[in-house]
Amino acid sequence: NAKYHKGLPGNTPKGSWTKQKMAEACEAYGIEIDVKEFRSTLWAKLKTHIAANIVPVIVQLAKDRGHEVVFTPPYHSDMQPIEMVWAYVKGAVGRQYTTSTKFPDVRQRLDREFAGLPKMAAYLNAVDDADDAAGAAFSSESESESDADSCDDCDFADYDGDV
């Protein structure tokens, strides 16, 4: 959920633009303006249009490939499987700490813990668990399509690890 994950396309108007560039952008987007309006007013109109109509680059890339990106709410690491993995590794390494621990020791322990992580199937189960937790926390009137699907139609062609 970091801000850099939600970067907009490079040609998206920015608040630092001149009034002239903002006016041109408003015209391009079909936003009605008065030439006497202040730059701040133009930016407010553009900002509203951008929020409603322009999607982050990563969201568009995923959509173009038939996927849907769902951002989890902040402060809900239980819904983010990678956070669960990191918590596991960090805890295992932290429990090995002694007063004589040096950075090379920490690196070796991190490498050992990451190497010992369960294979891909366990991660997929963690994702399913997180999805179930998200569904319970933010239940909707209809079940997610992915809840009913099995992983029989998943494409792991690009994955190099064990499944």
UniProtKB/TrEMBL annotation:
Q: What Gene3D superfamilies does the annotation carry?
A: Ribonuclease H-like superfamily/Ribonuclease H
Single GO term (MF): nucleic acid binding
This chain's protein is named: Tc1-like transposase DDE domain-containing protein
Question: From which organism does this entry originate?
Answer: Aphanomyces astaci (Crayfish plague agent)
